[in-house]
Amino acid sequence: MKKPSRKVRAEAQSMLTHWQEAVPNDRLAHLVKDVTRAFVRALQARLAQHGVTFGHWTFLRVLWETDGLTQRELSDQAGVMEPTTFAAIKAMEKLGYVVRAQRPDNKRKVYIHLTPKGRLLKSKLVPLAEEVNGIGVRGIKEAAVATTRLTLLAMLENLGRDEIESAYSSRRIPVTQRHLDESQRLAKRRGRG
Question: What is the pTM of this model?
Answer without folding.
Answer: 0.71
